[in-house]
C-alpha cells in the first residue's frame, strides 16, 4: 500500500475513534436531562445544572463535528487512493456505502449541533431555547441518526472480519 492510502487510513481510524467516542459521551450527557424513555425533561434539575449540561453538550458537539469531518474527508481520500479493488473486497464496498449513504443525515445533524454551539457561545439564551433545540435535535429525521450509528458500528465489524473478500486462487 502506498503512503497516501496509509496516511488517510490512519487519519480515518483516529478521527472515527474520536467521533464515535464523542457521540457516545454526548448521548450519556444528554441522557441526564430527560426522563428515561421519554422526551420529557426532568423537573428535579436545577436550572444552573441544566445550563451546564447544555454547555457540555455543546462542547462535545464540537468534538463530534471535528471527528466526523476528519473521518469524512479521510474516507474520501482513502476510497480514492486505495489499491484495494471494490469488486474483490465486498466488505470495503459495503463499508463505503454504509458510511457515505448517511452523510446527508450527518451534515444535517451537524447543522443542528452548530446551532446549539452558536446559541451557547455567541448569545445569551434561555433554557427554553436550549430545550427546543435539544428536542428538535433528538427528534430530527425520525430516528435515522440512530440507524446511522448502528451502521457505523457494523462498518467496524465488516472491517475486522472482512466478509465477501474474493480470494485469488494460487496456480
Instruction: Give the distance, in angstroms, between the N- and C-terminal Cα atoms.
Output: 24 Å
Helix content: over 70%
- The class by helix and strand makeup works out as mainly alpha
Beta-strand segment tally: 0
Tell me about the biggest sheet? none
Low-confidence stretches: none
Mean pLDDT: 93
Radius of gyration: 19 Å
- The H/E string reads HHHHHH
Number of helical elements? 6
The fraction of residues in strands falls at under 5%
Please give a quick description of this structure.
By secondary structure, the chain is mainly α.
Can you give a write-up of this model?
This protein is mostly helical and 171 residues long. The protein has one domain. Helices cover 74% and strands 0% of the residues. The protein contains six helices and no strands. It is elongated. The model has no long low-confidence stretch (mean pLDDT 93).
What are the SSEs and their pairings?
Elements: H1 3-31, H2 47-81, H3 90-101, H4 103-122, H5 127-139, H6 144-161
Helix pairs in contact: 1-2, 2-4, 3-6, 4-5
List its salient traits.
single chain; mainly alpha; elongated; 171 residues
